[in-house]
Amino acid sequence: xxxxxxxxxxxxxxxxxxxxxxxxxxxxxxxxxxxxxxxxxxxxxxxxxxxxxxxxxxxxxxxxxxxxxxxxxxxxxxxxxxxxxxxxxxxxxxxxxxxxxxxxxxxxxxxxxxxxxxxxxxxxxxxxxxxxxxxxxxxxxxxxxxxxxxxxxxxxxxxxxxxxxxxxxxxxxxxxxxxxxxxxxxxxxxxxxxxxxxxxxxxxxxxxxxxxxxxxxxxxxxxxxxxxxxxxxxxxxxxxxxxxxxxxxxxxxxxxxxxxxxxxxxxxxx
Length: 270
Ligand SMILES: Nc1ncnc2c1ncn2[C@@H]1O[C@H](COP(=O)(O)OP(=O)(O)OP(=O)(O)O)[C@@H](O)[C@H]1O
Description:
By secondary structure, this protein is α/β, with parallel strands linked by helices.
């Protein structure tokens, strides 16, 4: 299987501190990854590296078999879909939902003088429909609920038909219904062979969609554990990652975790 992401002994130094430290991680074609870790663990920094928006201080990063520092990043970036809070801040509130998705073809936010082909519009509409937004394409982005905004951002990230899709905390700020709708949409995406390789950052194992295959647990900028979900999402690994004694459960493709009951140390599930 082709390597989609290959980070080798990567360190990112900021403010005199290593915020990612000697990190090695490989993602292959067809895989669907979740990245978990406590606040400040380095998840967003890792996504920035994978999105070719940040270079490592030391070590090497290959994205879609292109080495950062050697490849023209403006040719590489359209092959990568990214949805993050930082990018969403640049979406104008008065932009129509359809244009939010359509402008991704030009790597811009905010429509100006670009001309779009009918095929582009059809694709944008189909993507919005796939995320339950068919009836809202003419609404302005500023009038959407947080859940609707998140689904619009993912449709936008898919517009360029990327080979790698990176979603940084797509469920942040959603209510329970919104989270479940998003998880269902991501499960459908994950189950489809034609989908890009997926990497989703989250704080909560409850947000891992069915059909996801692998997990990376980050702690203090390094790898706590990485590999197939069932091997990585153990009570031991998650407890070490979050610094809390946790119990983990898994059923019907969904995961949950909570603080271990007093006296339950040593008889954790999963
Ligand atoms: N430019 C910078 N200068 C100094 N420190 C930075 C810089 N950017 C990030 N950091 C620090 O690096 C650490 C990792 O940040 P990052 O945003 O990658 O974490 P995260 O795991 O995404 O956190 P969260 O879950 O809170 O979003 C944090 O402690 C953050 O304060």
